[in-house]
Design goal:
Number of strands of chain B: 7
Strand content of chain B: 15-25%
Largest sheet of chain B: 6 strands, mixed
Largest interface: A-B, 47 and 59 residues
Radius of gyration of chain B: 21 Å
Shape of chain A: elongated
Helix content of chain B: 40-55%
Number of helices of chain B: 7
Structural class of chain A: alpha/beta
Distance between the termini of chain A: 80 Å
Number of helices of chain A: 6
Distance between the termini of chain B: 47 Å
Order of helices and strands of chain A: HHEEEEHHEHEH
Order of helices and strands of chain B: HEEEEHHEHHEHEH
Oligomer: heterodimer
Shape of chain B: globular
Structural class of chain B: alpha/beta
Chain lengths: 212, 208
Protein backbone atom coordinates (compact mmCIF):
# COMPACT_ATOMS: atom_id res chain seq x y z
CA UNK A 1 0.00 0.00 0.00
CA UNK A 2 2.64 2.42 1.11
CA UNK A 3 4.81 1.71 -1.84
CA UNK A 4 1.97 2.40 -4.21
CA UNK A 5 1.32 5.75 -2.64
CA UNK A 6 4.97 6.49 -2.72
CA UNK A 7 5.28 5.64 -6.34
CA UNK A 8 2.18 7.63 -6.95
CA UNK A 9 3.80 10.58 -5.29
CA UNK A 10 6.95 10.26 -7.23
CA UNK A 11 4.93 10.04 -10.43
CA UNK A 12 3.19 13.34 -9.70
CA UNK A 13 5.55 15.51 -11.53
CA UNK A 14 3.31 17.75 -13.35
CA UNK A 15 5.22 19.99 -15.55
CA UNK A 16 3.51 22.88 -17.23
CA UNK A 17 3.52 21.15 -20.60
CA UNK A 18 2.26 17.81 -19.41
CA UNK A 19 -1.49 17.76 -19.11
CA UNK A 20 -2.16 14.07 -19.16
CA UNK A 21 -0.48 11.30 -17.20
CA UNK A 22 1.30 8.86 -19.40
CA UNK A 23 -1.11 6.05 -20.23
CA UNK A 24 0.23 2.80 -18.86
CA UNK A 25 -0.60 -0.30 -20.77
CA UNK A 26 -3.04 -2.56 -18.97
CA UNK A 27 -1.56 -5.62 -20.62
CA UNK A 28 0.36 -7.96 -18.39
CA UNK A 29 3.19 -10.01 -19.65
CA UNK A 30 1.74 -13.50 -19.68
CA UNK A 31 4.83 -15.38 -20.81
CA UNK A 32 5.92 -16.66 -17.37
CA UNK A 33 2.40 -17.84 -16.60
CA UNK A 34 2.16 -19.71 -19.89
CA UNK A 35 5.57 -21.20 -19.28
CA UNK A 36 4.44 -22.48 -15.94
CA UNK A 37 1.24 -23.78 -17.48
CA UNK A 38 3.10 -25.83 -20.00
CA UNK A 39 5.46 -27.10 -17.38
CA UNK A 40 2.49 -28.38 -15.41
CA UNK A 41 0.96 -29.94 -18.50
CA UNK A 42 4.12 -31.89 -19.20
CA UNK A 43 4.28 -32.93 -15.57
CA UNK A 44 0.74 -34.25 -15.56
CA UNK A 45 1.13 -35.97 -18.90
CA UNK A 46 4.12 -37.87 -17.62
CA UNK A 47 2.69 -38.83 -14.27
CA UNK A 48 -0.77 -39.76 -15.41
CA UNK A 49 -1.58 -43.43 -15.85
CA UNK A 50 -3.79 -43.54 -18.86
CA UNK A 51 -4.02 -47.28 -19.24
CA UNK A 52 -6.15 -48.49 -16.40
CA UNK A 53 -5.18 -52.04 -15.61
CA UNK A 54 -7.73 -54.76 -16.04
CA UNK A 55 -7.90 -58.14 -14.41
CA UNK A 56 -8.03 -61.57 -15.91
CA UNK A 57 -9.95 -64.08 -13.83
CA UNK A 58 -8.33 -67.41 -13.23
CA UNK A 59 -10.14 -70.23 -11.52
CA UNK A 60 -8.05 -73.17 -10.45
CA UNK A 61 -9.49 -76.52 -9.45
CA UNK A 62 -8.91 -78.02 -6.08
CA UNK A 63 -6.07 -80.49 -6.05
CA UNK A 64 -7.25 -83.99 -5.53
CA UNK A 65 -5.44 -87.26 -5.13
CA UNK A 66 -8.47 -89.40 -5.68
CA UNK A 67 -8.67 -90.67 -9.19
CA UNK A 68 -12.45 -90.58 -9.41
CA UNK A 69 -12.48 -86.86 -8.58
CA UNK A 70 -10.25 -85.98 -11.47
CA UNK A 71 -11.87 -84.39 -14.43
CA UNK A 72 -12.02 -86.76 -17.29
CA UNK A 73 -11.34 -85.53 -20.77
CA UNK A 74 -12.25 -87.38 -23.92
CA UNK A 75 -9.18 -88.23 -25.85
CA UNK A 76 -10.70 -87.21 -29.16
CA UNK A 77 -11.44 -83.71 -27.92
CA UNK A 78 -8.21 -82.98 -26.09
CA UNK A 79 -5.57 -80.58 -27.24
CA UNK A 80 -2.43 -80.30 -25.18
CA UNK A 81 -0.43 -77.11 -25.50
CA UNK A 82 3.02 -76.87 -24.00
CA UNK A 83 4.98 -73.68 -23.55
CA UNK A 84 8.71 -73.71 -23.87
CA UNK A 85 11.68 -71.41 -23.86
CA UNK A 86 11.80 -68.24 -26.01
CA UNK A 87 8.04 -68.16 -26.65
CA UNK A 88 8.04 -71.57 -28.28
CA UNK A 89 4.78 -73.47 -28.30
CA UNK A 90 4.36 -77.23 -28.72
CA UNK A 91 1.16 -79.15 -29.05
CA UNK A 92 -0.36 -82.51 -29.73
CA UNK A 93 -3.89 -83.76 -30.13
CA UNK A 94 -5.32 -86.50 -28.00
CA UNK A 95 -2.73 -88.71 -26.37
CA UNK A 96 0.96 -88.37 -26.96
CA UNK A 97 1.96 -91.30 -29.16
CA UNK A 98 4.80 -93.50 -27.92
CA UNK A 99 6.98 -92.46 -30.85
CA UNK A 100 5.97 -88.82 -30.34
CA UNK A 101 5.01 -88.47 -33.99
CA UNK A 102 2.09 -86.17 -33.16
CA UNK A 103 4.26 -83.80 -31.13
CA UNK A 104 4.52 -80.58 -33.08
CA UNK A 105 6.16 -77.27 -32.52
CA UNK A 106 4.70 -73.90 -33.45
CA UNK A 107 4.61 -70.37 -32.14
CA UNK A 108 2.16 -67.94 -30.63
CA UNK A 109 0.94 -66.47 -33.90
CA UNK A 110 -0.04 -69.88 -35.27
CA UNK A 111 -1.43 -71.57 -32.19
CA UNK A 112 -4.72 -69.73 -32.52
CA UNK A 113 -5.47 -71.39 -35.86
CA UNK A 114 -4.65 -74.72 -34.30
CA UNK A 115 -7.12 -74.12 -31.48
CA UNK A 116 -9.81 -72.97 -33.90
CA UNK A 117 -9.27 -75.96 -36.19
CA UNK A 118 -9.36 -78.40 -33.36
CA UNK A 119 -12.53 -76.84 -32.01
CA UNK A 120 -14.18 -77.07 -35.42
CA UNK A 121 -13.12 -80.69 -35.72
CA UNK A 122 -14.60 -81.48 -32.33
CA UNK A 123 -17.84 -79.73 -33.21
CA UNK A 124 -18.01 -81.57 -36.54
CA UNK A 125 -17.61 -84.94 -34.90
CA UNK A 126 -20.12 -84.15 -32.20
CA UNK A 127 -22.82 -86.74 -31.78
CA UNK A 128 -26.28 -85.63 -30.92
CA UNK A 129 -26.79 -85.80 -27.19
CA UNK A 130 -30.38 -85.18 -26.13
CA UNK A 131 -29.52 -85.40 -22.49
CA UNK A 132 -27.03 -82.57 -22.62
CA UNK A 133 -29.37 -80.38 -24.61
CA UNK A 134 -32.10 -81.01 -22.10
CA UNK A 135 -29.88 -79.83 -19.29
CA UNK A 136 -28.96 -76.72 -21.19
CA UNK A 137 -32.56 -76.03 -22.11
CA UNK A 138 -33.54 -76.33 -18.47
CA UNK A 139 -30.88 -73.88 -17.40
CA UNK A 140 -31.95 -71.47 -20.07
CA UNK A 141 -28.78 -71.81 -22.01
CA UNK A 142 -27.92 -72.28 -25.61
CA UNK A 143 -28.15 -75.85 -26.84
CA UNK A 144 -25.19 -75.18 -29.08
CA UNK A 145 -23.09 -75.23 -25.94
CA UNK A 146 -23.25 -78.99 -26.18
CA UNK A 147 -21.41 -78.95 -29.47
CA UNK A 148 -17.95 -78.25 -28.12
CA UNK A 149 -18.56 -79.99 -24.84
CA UNK A 150 -15.80 -82.49 -25.48
CA UNK A 151 -13.24 -79.89 -26.37
CA UNK A 152 -10.63 -79.56 -23.66
CA UNK A 153 -7.38 -77.69 -23.83
CA UNK A 154 -4.64 -78.77 -21.48
CA UNK A 155 -2.01 -76.11 -20.86
CA UNK A 156 1.39 -77.24 -19.70
CA UNK A 157 3.98 -74.52 -19.24
CA UNK A 158 7.51 -75.82 -18.83
CA UNK A 159 10.00 -74.39 -16.31
CA UNK A 160 11.43 -72.04 -18.91
CA UNK A 161 8.10 -70.56 -19.93
CA UNK A 162 7.52 -66.99 -18.85
CA UNK A 163 4.56 -65.52 -17.06
CA UNK A 164 3.70 -63.56 -20.19
CA UNK A 165 3.41 -66.79 -22.19
CA UNK A 166 1.16 -68.25 -19.56
CA UNK A 167 -1.15 -65.25 -19.52
CA UNK A 168 -1.12 -65.09 -23.31
CA UNK A 169 -2.25 -68.67 -23.66
CA UNK A 170 -4.94 -68.20 -21.01
CA UNK A 171 -6.04 -65.17 -22.96
CA UNK A 172 -6.13 -67.26 -26.10
CA UNK A 173 -8.71 -69.44 -24.35
CA UNK A 174 -10.95 -66.44 -23.81
CA UNK A 175 -10.43 -65.20 -27.35
CA UNK A 176 -11.35 -68.51 -28.92
CA UNK A 177 -14.24 -69.25 -26.61
CA UNK A 178 -12.68 -72.36 -25.11
CA UNK A 179 -14.84 -73.15 -22.13
CA UNK A 180 -12.89 -76.02 -20.71
CA UNK A 181 -9.20 -75.73 -20.13
CA UNK A 182 -6.81 -76.81 -17.45
CA UNK A 183 -3.34 -75.83 -16.39
CA UNK A 184 -1.26 -78.80 -15.32
CA UNK A 185 2.34 -79.87 -14.95
CA UNK A 186 4.34 -81.50 -17.69
CA UNK A 187 4.96 -85.20 -17.78
CA UNK A 188 8.67 -86.11 -17.67
CA UNK A 189 8.34 -87.56 -21.16
CA UNK A 190 7.01 -84.27 -22.53
CA UNK A 191 9.70 -82.24 -20.83
CA UNK A 192 12.28 -84.50 -22.38
CA UNK A 193 10.74 -83.98 -25.82
CA UNK A 194 10.73 -80.22 -25.42
CA UNK A 195 14.31 -80.17 -24.24
CA UNK A 196 15.34 -82.39 -27.13
CA UNK A 197 13.66 -80.01 -29.55
CA UNK A 198 15.32 -77.02 -27.95
CA UNK A 199 18.65 -78.78 -27.85
CA UNK A 200 19.06 -78.37 -24.12
CA UNK A 201 18.42 -81.95 -23.23
CA UNK A 202 20.95 -83.51 -20.91
CA UNK A 203 20.54 -87.21 -20.30
CA UNK A 204 19.45 -87.42 -16.70
CA UNK A 205 21.41 -89.62 -14.35
CA UNK A 206 18.21 -90.48 -12.51
CA UNK A 207 14.59 -90.43 -13.66
CA UNK A 208 14.13 -86.70 -13.08
CA UNK A 209 15.37 -84.44 -15.83
CA UNK A 210 17.17 -81.29 -14.68
CA UNK A 211 15.09 -78.15 -14.99
CA UNK A 212 17.80 -76.11 -16.62
CA UNK B 1 -1.87 -16.18 -28.52
CA UNK B 2 -4.83 -15.91 -26.17
CA UNK B 3 -6.87 -18.80 -27.66
CA UNK B 4 -3.78 -20.91 -27.64
CA UNK B 5 -3.18 -20.25 -23.97
CA UNK B 6 -6.85 -20.94 -23.29
CA UNK B 7 -6.60 -24.35 -24.86
CA UNK B 8 -3.38 -25.07 -23.02
CA UNK B 9 -4.98 -24.34 -19.70
CA UNK B 10 -7.98 -26.41 -20.61
CA UNK B 11 -5.67 -29.34 -21.25
CA UNK B 12 -3.90 -28.61 -18.00
CA UNK B 13 -7.11 -28.70 -16.01
CA UNK B 14 -8.13 -31.91 -17.77
CA UNK B 15 -4.93 -33.65 -16.79
CA UNK B 16 -5.11 -32.35 -13.26
CA UNK B 17 -8.58 -33.77 -12.82
CA UNK B 18 -8.02 -37.00 -14.72
CA UNK B 19 -4.71 -37.86 -13.14
CA UNK B 20 -4.67 -40.67 -10.70
CA UNK B 21 -1.26 -41.19 -9.26
CA UNK B 22 0.29 -44.59 -9.49
CA UNK B 23 0.30 -46.36 -6.16
CA UNK B 24 3.87 -46.78 -5.00
CA UNK B 25 5.41 -50.05 -6.04
CA UNK B 26 8.42 -51.82 -4.68
CA UNK B 27 9.57 -52.83 -8.14
CA UNK B 28 8.88 -51.88 -11.71
CA UNK B 29 6.48 -54.40 -13.21
CA UNK B 30 5.46 -54.67 -16.84
CA UNK B 31 2.27 -56.64 -16.90
CA UNK B 32 1.23 -58.77 -19.85
CA UNK B 33 -1.75 -57.87 -21.99
CA UNK B 34 -5.10 -59.55 -22.10
CA UNK B 35 -8.45 -58.96 -23.76
CA UNK B 36 -10.16 -58.87 -20.39
CA UNK B 37 -11.91 -55.60 -19.63
CA UNK B 38 -12.81 -56.22 -16.02
CA UNK B 39 -11.77 -53.28 -13.90
CA UNK B 40 -9.20 -53.70 -11.21
CA UNK B 41 -10.67 -53.67 -7.71
CA UNK B 42 -8.91 -51.02 -5.68
CA UNK B 43 -9.43 -52.08 -2.14
CA UNK B 44 -9.92 -55.03 0.13
CA UNK B 45 -7.42 -56.97 -1.82
CA UNK B 46 -4.43 -59.15 -1.24
CA UNK B 47 -1.87 -58.42 -3.88
CA UNK B 48 1.05 -60.69 -4.62
CA UNK B 49 3.65 -59.16 -6.88
CA UNK B 50 6.11 -61.22 -8.84
CA UNK B 51 9.00 -59.40 -10.45
CA UNK B 52 11.15 -60.46 -13.39
CA UNK B 53 13.84 -62.06 -11.25
CA UNK B 54 11.30 -64.13 -9.35
CA UNK B 55 11.10 -62.06 -6.18
CA UNK B 56 7.73 -62.13 -4.47
CA UNK B 57 6.13 -59.23 -2.61
CA UNK B 58 3.06 -59.21 -0.47
CA UNK B 59 0.72 -56.24 -0.18
CA UNK B 60 -2.55 -55.74 1.63
CA UNK B 61 -4.79 -53.09 0.21
CA UNK B 62 -7.20 -51.80 2.80
CA UNK B 63 -9.08 -48.56 2.52
CA UNK B 64 -10.52 -47.65 5.88
CA UNK B 65 -9.79 -50.08 8.58
CA UNK B 66 -6.07 -49.76 9.21
CA UNK B 67 -6.49 -51.90 12.32
CA UNK B 68 -6.78 -54.84 9.96
CA UNK B 69 -3.19 -54.59 8.91
CA UNK B 70 -2.14 -54.09 12.47
CA UNK B 71 -3.96 -57.24 13.49
CA UNK B 72 -2.16 -59.20 10.83
CA UNK B 73 1.28 -58.16 11.98
CA UNK B 74 0.35 -58.51 15.64
CA UNK B 75 -0.84 -62.03 15.05
CA UNK B 76 2.22 -62.77 12.98
CA UNK B 77 4.47 -61.41 15.70
CA UNK B 78 2.81 -63.52 18.37
CA UNK B 79 2.66 -66.79 16.49
CA UNK B 80 6.10 -66.63 14.96
CA UNK B 81 7.85 -64.74 17.79
CA UNK B 82 9.40 -62.16 15.51
CA UNK B 83 10.19 -59.87 18.42
CA UNK B 84 8.80 -56.74 16.81
CA UNK B 85 8.34 -53.62 18.88
CA UNK B 86 5.12 -51.63 18.94
CA UNK B 87 6.66 -48.97 16.72
CA UNK B 88 7.75 -51.53 14.18
CA UNK B 89 4.28 -53.00 14.02
CA UNK B 90 2.85 -49.52 13.49
CA UNK B 91 5.37 -49.11 10.74
CA UNK B 92 4.03 -52.21 9.02
CA UNK B 93 0.63 -50.58 8.74
CA UNK B 94 2.20 -47.72 6.82
CA UNK B 95 4.50 -49.97 4.85
CA UNK B 96 3.55 -50.80 1.35
CA UNK B 97 4.87 -54.09 0.09
CA UNK B 98 6.71 -56.65 2.11
CA UNK B 99 9.33 -58.68 0.32
CA UNK B 100 11.56 -60.18 2.97
CA UNK B 101 11.69 -63.50 4.81
CA UNK B 102 10.45 -63.51 8.39
CA UNK B 103 14.02 -63.52 9.64
CA UNK B 104 14.62 -60.09 8.10
CA UNK B 105 11.24 -58.58 8.86
CA UNK B 106 12.39 -56.82 12.03
CA UNK B 107 15.30 -55.30 10.17
CA UNK B 108 13.02 -54.04 7.40
CA UNK B 109 10.39 -52.59 9.71
CA UNK B 110 13.03 -50.72 11.66
CA UNK B 111 13.35 -48.52 8.58
CA UNK B 112 10.71 -45.82 8.05
CA UNK B 113 8.03 -46.82 5.53
CA UNK B 114 9.00 -44.12 3.05
CA UNK B 115 12.58 -45.33 2.84
CA UNK B 116 11.75 -48.98 2.43
CA UNK B 117 11.23 -48.55 -1.27
CA UNK B 118 14.88 -47.71 -1.76
CA UNK B 119 16.04 -50.95 -0.25
CA UNK B 120 16.46 -54.02 -2.37
CA UNK B 121 14.28 -56.62 -0.76
CA UNK B 122 15.12 -60.26 -1.43
CA UNK B 123 11.51 -61.39 -1.81
CA UNK B 124 9.37 -63.71 0.28
CA UNK B 125 10.55 -67.32 0.11
CA UNK B 126 8.11 -69.52 -1.80
CA UNK B 127 10.32 -72.21 -3.26
CA UNK B 128 9.20 -75.33 -1.43
CA UNK B 129 6.31 -76.08 0.85
CA UNK B 130 8.46 -76.26 3.99
CA UNK B 131 9.83 -72.74 3.69
CA UNK B 132 6.85 -71.22 1.91
CA UNK B 133 6.24 -68.06 3.91
CA UNK B 134 3.76 -66.56 1.50
CA UNK B 135 1.32 -69.21 2.68
CA UNK B 136 1.40 -67.77 6.22
CA UNK B 137 1.03 -64.21 5.00
CA UNK B 138 -2.04 -65.16 3.01
CA UNK B 139 -3.49 -67.22 5.81
CA UNK B 140 -3.14 -64.45 8.36
CA UNK B 141 -4.42 -61.79 6.01
CA UNK B 142 -7.47 -63.86 5.11
CA UNK B 143 -8.29 -64.49 8.74
CA UNK B 144 -7.90 -60.76 9.49
CA UNK B 145 -10.33 -59.85 6.75
CA UNK B 146 -12.68 -62.46 8.29
CA UNK B 147 -15.65 -62.88 6.05
CA UNK B 148 -15.26 -59.77 3.96
CA UNK B 149 -15.12 -60.29 0.26
CA UNK B 150 -11.51 -60.08 -0.72
CA UNK B 151 -9.93 -60.00 -4.13
CA UNK B 152 -6.84 -62.05 -4.65
CA UNK B 153 -4.66 -60.25 -7.10
CA UNK B 154 -1.55 -61.57 -8.74
CA UNK B 155 0.62 -59.12 -10.56
CA UNK B 156 3.43 -60.68 -12.49
CA UNK B 157 6.11 -59.33 -14.73
CA UNK B 158 6.30 -60.38 -18.37
CA UNK B 159 9.65 -62.04 -17.87
CA UNK B 160 8.87 -63.86 -14.67
CA UNK B 161 9.25 -67.60 -14.98
CA UNK B 162 6.33 -69.94 -14.74
CA UNK B 163 7.56 -72.03 -11.75
CA UNK B 164 7.49 -68.97 -9.49
CA UNK B 165 3.96 -68.21 -10.62
CA UNK B 166 2.98 -71.80 -9.95
CA UNK B 167 4.36 -71.59 -6.43
CA UNK B 168 2.27 -68.48 -5.80
CA UNK B 169 -0.83 -70.28 -7.00
CA UNK B 170 0.08 -73.19 -4.76
CA UNK B 171 0.37 -70.89 -1.74
CA UNK B 172 -3.14 -69.67 -2.45
CA UNK B 173 -4.41 -73.16 -3.09
CA UNK B 174 -3.07 -74.38 0.21
CA UNK B 175 -5.26 -71.72 1.79
CA UNK B 176 -8.24 -73.07 -0.14
CA UNK B 177 -8.35 -70.10 -2.43
CA UNK B 178 -8.97 -71.00 -6.03
CA UNK B 179 -10.13 -67.80 -7.67
CA UNK B 180 -7.54 -65.28 -8.66
CA UNK B 181 -7.39 -62.16 -10.66
CA UNK B 182 -4.30 -61.58 -12.73
CA UNK B 183 -3.52 -57.95 -13.33
CA UNK B 184 -3.05 -57.23 -17.00
CA UNK B 185 -3.08 -54.33 -19.40
CA UNK B 186 -5.92 -53.99 -21.86
CA UNK B 187 -5.49 -55.33 -25.36
CA UNK B 188 -7.80 -55.31 -28.36
CA UNK B 189 -9.78 -58.38 -29.24
CA UNK B 190 -8.49 -59.88 -32.51
CA UNK B 191 -10.96 -59.24 -35.30
CA UNK B 192 -12.92 -62.28 -36.41
CA UNK B 193 -12.25 -64.38 -33.35
CA UNK B 194 -14.91 -66.14 -31.32
CA UNK B 195 -14.82 -63.51 -28.58
CA UNK B 196 -15.02 -60.73 -31.14
CA UNK B 197 -18.23 -62.16 -32.55
CA UNK B 198 -19.63 -62.65 -29.08
CA UNK B 199 -18.93 -59.07 -28.05
CA UNK B 200 -20.32 -57.76 -31.32
CA UNK B 201 -23.49 -59.77 -30.71
CA UNK B 202 -23.78 -58.38 -27.21
CA UNK B 203 -23.36 -54.88 -28.46
CA UNK B 204 -26.03 -55.39 -31.09
CA UNK B 205 -28.34 -56.71 -28.42
CA UNK B 206 -27.68 -53.70 -26.24
CA UNK B 207 -28.56 -51.30 -29.03
CA UNK B 208 -31.92 -52.85 -29.83
Amino acid sequence: MASIEESGDSGHKKGPGVKKAKKLSTRVDMTPMVDLGFLLITFFIFTTTMSTPSTLDLFMPKDTDKDEDQNKAKESGALTIMLGKNNAVYYYEGQLLPDASNFQSTNFSKIRDEIINKRKAVIASHQHDANCEKIWAKNGGDKNSCLDRDFVVVIKPDPDATYKNTVDILDEMTINGVKRFAMVDLFPQELELIQKTEGTFVAPPAAAAPAK
Amino acid sequence: MTPFVDVAFLILSFFMLATKFKPPEPVEITTPNSVSTKALPENDAILVTLDSSGRVFFTMRVEKDQMLKYNVIKNMNDTRSLGLSEAEMKNFVKADAIGVPFSQLKQLLAIPAEDQRNIKQPGIPIKDSASNELFYWIRDAVSAFSGKKINYLVKGDNNAKYPAFKEILNSFKRNDIYKFQLITAVEDVPVGSELYKERAAQEAKGKK
